[in-house]
Please model this.
Amino acid sequence: MFMNIDRGFTFSNIFTIILVLIMVQAIHGFMELEGLYCGKENCYDVLGVPRESSKSDIARAYRRLARKYHPDMHRSTEAKKKAEERFTQLATAYEILRDEESRADYDYMLDNPDEVYRHYYRYYRRRVAPKVDVRIVLAVTITVISVVQYWGAWSRYKAAVDYLVTVPKYRLKAVDIAKQEGLLNSSKKKDRRPKEVIKEEEEAILKKVLEEKVDIKGGYSKPSIKDILWIQLILLPYTIGAYIVWYFKWVWKFNICKEEFGEEEKFYLIRKKLKCNESQWNSIEEEEKLFYLKKELWKEENFKVWKKQKEDEMKAKLAENAKYKSYRRYMRNHGPGQITFED
Model:
């Protein structure tokens, strides 16, 4: 007896809970759809047109109702407020129905009102998604990066030239070259221009001589159009193909055929062991490169010995450095990140 009552009570509760959940979901879906498109009203009914109306019929109906409900056509405050609300509804309905894709989404919602979450996705996808073609955005972005990259390279190069003019060794060489080529006027007494103007002209001449005669390498080298992002992307298939060909040649010559390394290959291996990129490697003086070559640093065992020697030399120099001694004393007494209350 009690078993039957308990079982019936349980089934009833389950049925009630399911019914409530369905009602809550329905109400929730209705309230969510209320914020989409024209809300509770039908966009076609707002404009007073049937669903099968053409775009021209929809536009004609909107213009007619927009003139009627335009806020400027009403004088009283209450009438103007109601007209503004109606005018906003008309504009919303027209924006939805005049676009073919948006209208198709709206018609789908009318035919499938139970697919709440899909309607939300379709609705906000149109508003959140960018209106501009992604390819155009990508092209503009690459162009901006290329311009900034090229401008930054020229700024670094100009800064390097400005610095070289202040270095006595390079400045004297530039002056000698400028005098030999007749770019500098040796007799300044005949020049009646202000001294500031003459000095600026001489500085410009010396900078031009340095730009032409001095080969600045590394991160401050003269920029090339081949280094900008656009050109690198255009040449990317060729670069990849050239690398693949080079890699297979390397494997064939030195791994399979066991040929001896040439000077170029030795320099390449040394650069890889030093972890230098091409720009950093180009900034190294030729004498230093030849020293690496003489030490045979492309060989792993030689490179390890040389690296250990450099580390020992660096430690010895730091041990003799007064500032480094003070730093080590502080770290030994106080430790990293400690807070003390010593006077």
Observations:
- The chain has three domains: 19-128, 135-230, 300-343.
- Residues 153 and 327 are 37 Å apart (CA to CA).
- Residues 1-11, 19-32, 338-343 have pLDDT under 50 and may be disordered.
